[in-house]
Amino acid sequence: MPPAVDTLTPAPSSDDARRLSLGARLLRSPFATMLLGSLLLWLAQPGTARLIGLPWAPLGLAGWFAVTPWVWLAMRDAPLRRMGWVQVWLGGWAYWLLTLYWICLPHPLTPIGWPLLAGYLAVYPLAFVALTRRAIRAAPVWVAAPLVYAGLEWVQAHLFTGFLMGALSHTQAGSPIVMQISDLTGAYGVSFVLTLTASCLAPLLQRDANRGRRFAAATTAAATVVAVLYYGQVRLLEASNPAAGPVVGLIQGATLATWDPDPSRNQTILDAQLRLTRQAAEEAAEIGLRPDLYIWPESMFRAPVVTLGNQVKPTDQLPEALRRFGIGADQWFSGLSAEQGAAFLLGADRFDMVASEDEESGFAQTGYNTAVLVDADGQLLSFYDKTHRVPFGEYIPFAKNMPALYFLTPMSGGLGEGEGPVAMPIQTAGGEFLLAPNICYETVIPHVIRRQVATLSEQGQRPDVLVNITNDAWFWGATELDLHLAVGQFRAVENRTPMVIAANTGLSAVIDGAGRVRRVSERMVEDVIVDSVPLDPRESFYSRHGDWFALGCLLGTVVLLLAALRPRSNDAPPADA
């Protein structure tokens, strides 16, 4: 009987075996190689160390060489046949399954979406290997691989509304000095640098790489790291003595999320938030502070806020048919402000009513996920409606034309889309400050927050503080909380604007304009944070010019791919492979 043939793994050529390192030759299958990189990348992500019981371990260091196995695979001369590419995809799928396990937690149906979303995202590691294999025919691997990786991250952040949580750059959330280049390039620049250094390791580990290539790789890696650290240190020193901004009280409840409507829970939630607000006031007094603003997380103000044609109206001025929707909201506003003598930013459900003869009540209703600002006199000054909604969480794609789709989900209907960013002024003893609220996963997408800051800046209303309100109770304290905090850190650096986060069940935080976490709450417990927000007067290049770097990487990838089409002999190796 002839020996069994491994049809999944392409047999390496003699030249391939000679040129690859011993470690790479031990990883005989594309799946094993991809899986090694996936495990390293997962270990380096925020929250993983705590998850596996090693909260003290600096696993973020693994981010510097996490994609080296993927680069090894891209450098192999041996062709990858169909099943070999399937293995590449499976290895990338493993990373996203590990990173996004918490998608299973919100609802019995969400485990269906977990492997599907992970499967889609696994296309990007597959594309990285495939495009890099082609691009290194035209450029050294430490040029080609970073261009491809950063360019693909930009695509991932935009395609299908975008999703960029668990990115390579986020492994450095615990290293503020590395994060600082984000004010030039966005977080894409950090991913570029990490891929570059990881790519430089491959020639260094090749047994027969000539001295010239090894020297070039080592020099490139060292120069890049030194430049990044030098720039980071300079920018951190600039932010060493920040001016004090408004004093905020972040009110973190521990209300577990549920899809089942229960009117009695609304009063329980309101009572808990009010109790914690009083606790924050007491703690502030003990340290000689008085909050200018109390911030409640997303959806924690449970009295419905009703507007008429997007105009704020007191309950007693609403048409009779609408009063039942808004009973209690304005009374709550007055009571909160009168008791604390401060402004409130509240995560609420807003219902906008428009006269309609087609509705039995005479009004058509649109719901919004909203942040409302109530001043110290109890007046609702302004509101911000979430603009970047989460598919399948806040609306169902195509359901506008096929409403029956909502019957297949626990959602009764989709939420409306907000019109744009809002600068909210608050008055303090130190003057007026402008806040720019965003809600939940809007911080996950770099260009969403950047556009908000840029738009307001063009209007002469550059925000002093970014405010994220979120309800992460759906994830039961999982690593989603750590990943969500990390994206907030990067958004603060990218826009050189401090960010405060009020999160139901955590993680609530105060982050300065350098991405450093000054205060952070515990998870899955009630907590309050009272702190003065450190201001950052600097403006960032990224905030003004957007995704120039990532788009440049995407363009560079296209140029290399076109250059790689030039004829070459069959036995010519890829450049620097």
TrEMBL record:
Pfam family for this entry, one: LNT_N
Pathway: Protein modification; lipoprotein biosynthesis (N-acyl transfer)
Claim: Lipid metabolism is one of the keywords in the record: no
Recorded GO MF terms: N-acyltransferase activity
Top-rank lineage group of the source organism: Bacteria
Domain CN hydrolase as annotated: residue spans: 254-537
Membrane-topology descriptor: Multi-pass membrane protein
Residue ranges crossing the lipid bilayer per the database entry: 56-73, 85-103, 109-131, 143-165, 185-203, 215-232, 548-565
InterPro entries per UniProt: Apolipo_AcylTrfase, C-N_Hydrolase, C-N_Hydrolase_sf, LNT_N
Compartment annotation: Cell membrane
Cellular component, GO, one term: plasma membrane
Enzyme class of the recorded protein, top EC level: transferase
Keywords: Acyltransferase, Cell membrane, Lipoprotein, Membrane, Transferase, Transmembrane, Transmembrane helix
Biological processes annotated in GO: lipoprotein biosynthetic process
EC number: 2.3.1.269
Function text: Catalyzes the phospholipid dependent N-acylation of the N-terminal cysteine of apolipoprotein, the last step in lipoprotein maturation.
HAMAP family assigned to the protein according to its UniProt record, in alphabetical order: Lnt
Homology family: Belongs to the CN hydrolase family. Apolipoprotein N-acyltransferase subfamily.
Name assigned to this protein: Apolipoprotein N-acyltransferase
Species this chain originates from: Posidoniimonas corsicana
